[in-house]
Amino acid sequence: MSTTLGLKEDALAAKGYQEAFQQVQVSVVKVLNGDSPDEVFHDDVQNWYLELFKLSVQDGVVEASQIAGYRNRQVYISGSRHIPPPPDATWDSMNTLERLLMDEKSAAV
Fold first, then answer.
1. Residues 57-77: b if buried by 16+ CB within 10 A, e if exposed
2. Which domain holds residue 97?
């Protein structure tokens, strides 16, 4: 039974990644068409996040309250030497990213 639930969770997560990626592509097109990268990021980042988890919330696999704000536990990327910042640094990291985008002259970056 738990294997089936794990497969369902994996499928919903994969679909969420696909949906979020499609929203990021829409945002990239906005920037390439001349919109300000920092404004696009500021306006669209919540849409990316929503698309990432929407199906899992709708299906009851994840409670909406669990995805409020940024992550609250450490995550790791399998096969990578990169370790994402700890959860308590995520908010500051996102603010820093937005500031860097504001100061960036080239949309290619």
1. beeebbeeeebeeeeeeeeee
2. 2-103
Helix or strand run (H / E) with residue 38: helix 37-58
Could you report the per-residue pLDDT of 15-57, keeping only the tens digit for each?
999 999 999 999 999 999 999 888 999 999 999 999 999 999 9
Q: Angle at CA 43, nearest 5°, toward 102 and 73?
A: 90
pLDDT tens per residue across span 66-81: 888 888 889 898 899 9
Does the residue 97 lie in any domain?
A: yes
Q: In whole angstroms, what is the distance from residue 50 CA to residue 43 CA? A: 13
* Distinct helix (H) and strand (E) counts, the chain: 3, 0
Distance CA 18, CA 27 (A): 14
Domain count, the chain: 1
What does pTM read for this prediction?
0.76
